[in-house]
Amino acid sequence: MLKAKDIMTRDVVFIEPGMKITDVAKLLLERHINGAPVVDDNGDLIGLICQSDLIAQQKKIPVPSVFNLLDTFIPITSPGKVEKEVRKIYAVNAAQAMTPDPVTVEPETGIEEVAALMVNKGFHTIPVVDKGKVVGIIGKEDILRTIMPAN
User: Fold this and answer.
1) Contact criterion met (CB below 8 Å) for 81 and 26
2) Which of 114, 117, 137, 131 is nearest to 15 (CA)?
3) CATH number of the domain within which 69 lies
4) Which H helix or E strand runs over 97?
5) How many domains does the chain have?
6) Does residue 58 sit within a domain?
7) To 5 degrees, how large is the angle CA 117–CA 137–CA 114?
8) Residue span of the structural domain in which 104 resides
9) Intervals of the chain under pLDDT 50
């Protein structure tokens, strides 16, 4: 059975929290990757930034949905979700646009579990962490390569 360590990309591109959004976008495009881990000065994982986080900047400010019941306005959209979207729209650096505390897997995690996370949770990129440090990253392309016959 294949494990995360067997398919992960070991040459990980790391992003610093203060990196400008334009520089992050340029790096992701140049390296042809969907996302990258954001690490602090100690190399500890603090977030994950993906193309979708950057694309969020092109959205309009979300207007909270509410309905009126007996002269009371009841929100349909959680205020926290609206705040998170607004923060991403106006982000100027990686720390503001990233997803904090991302889901991670360990090197020994089976590929079936990684694939299930991607499909069920809609993840495109998952960091592989060993003893608190990022040792690899798995993207959808890494999973797809396992389908290809060996030459």
Assistant:
1) no
2) 137
3) 3.10.580.10
4) helix 94-97
5) 1
6) yes
7) 20
8) 4-145
9) 61-63
Question: What is the C-alpha separation between 142 and 22, in angstroms, rounded?
Answer: 26
In the block, which residue shows the tokens 């790096």? 27
CA distance 79 to 138: 32
Residue 13 lies in a domain: yes
- Helix (H) / strand (E) element for 79: namely helix 79-89
Containing 88, the helix (H) or strand (E) segment is helix 79-89
**16, 63, 67: which is closest to 41 by C-alpha?**
16
Distance CA 35, CA 78 (A): 27
pLDDT, tens only, 47-71 = 999 988 888 655 554 445 555 555 5
Tokens 């579990």 correspond to 113
What is the Cα–Cα distance from 112 to 149, expressed in whole angstroms?
A: 18
The answer to whether position 151 is within a domain reads no
φ, ψ of residue 49 to 5 degrees: the values are -120, 130
Asked whether residue 150 is assigned to any structural domain, the reply reads no
pTM for the whole structure: 0.76
